[in-house]
Write a structure and sequence with these properties.
This protein has about 325 residues and is an all-alpha fold. The protein has 14 helices and 2 strands. It has a two-stranded antiparallel ribbon with strand order 1-2. β1 and β2 form a beta hairpin.
Amino acid sequence: MHPMLLVWLKFLICAAIIYLAGSKLTKYGDAIAEKTGLCRAWIGLVLLAAITSLPELATSISASALAQAPDLAAGDLLGACTMNMFTLSLLDLLWGLRGKGTIFIKPKEGNLISTLFGAVILLTVAAALALGHVSLDLSIRGISVYSMVILGVYLLSLAILYNYREGAETLGAKTYAHVSSLQTYLFFFFSAAAVVAAGSWLPFIGAEIVNVMGWGQTFVAVLFLALATTLPEITVSFSALKLGHASMAIGNMVGSNIFDVSLIFLADIFYRPASLYSTVNSSMIFVALIGALLMGLIYYAQKKQVKNHMLSLIVITIYLCSLFFLFTSGVLS
């Protein structure tokens, strides 16, 4: 088989595994939350974001520790953030086609706080990357101070969001009463194992795409790796929207963004040759800033409770233009 066809076949197989296993992982993760009494408000939203972000976790650690490709690790995490905002805007357009206006008309306070923190943590990453590229990077026991700051912002966001845990949407009690606890934990374990395996394989496929297609790691990670690893978030938010839970769809996307960015802390720990912030391509600063801008626009849409889809169209346009810039600029390495 031609190398180009083979690498894309591998990518499609890997993406399919992540999609199928990720969908099951989300379902049985929700079942575990229900059976343990966690699927309510703050804890449920945090668990959902963590579960749907498991592919990003596996991919970023694999890219850092095994593939020794920090650009793929950072690009996947930051690209997932921009991809989620792009997807959320598309979902808003779909919501409008159902004659229900925009998904931002009645925002939950917790979603507003989450979106704002998402923009702040992405700006923090952009600043850390910029400082890292001018050799201003301090570390404690081999861990960058910037990673500690990013983790601190993430934990602070969780602490503040805890105050807004009341009134969060849920899908109802006893949804999984017909599934035994043993079945739930077994299916969750095997789904998680499949996602971790596929996520660990993905960076190596990304490196093959770079070599075969002659594209840069930044572009490949931000588009293709991010697309594959965000499939669970896309599935969950689309399902929530079909059930009429607009704020749940928003909460999953913005919550996943905060969790994804916090994973840079782990990517930095697992990448041992040097500091992640001084090693990755400078184009990651651009990606982080675009992510912060898109989250800022989504925050504005919720804060102002916009009644038209203009902001969603702006988000979509900015996202597509950023991909075009990454592809055509000389920052493809």
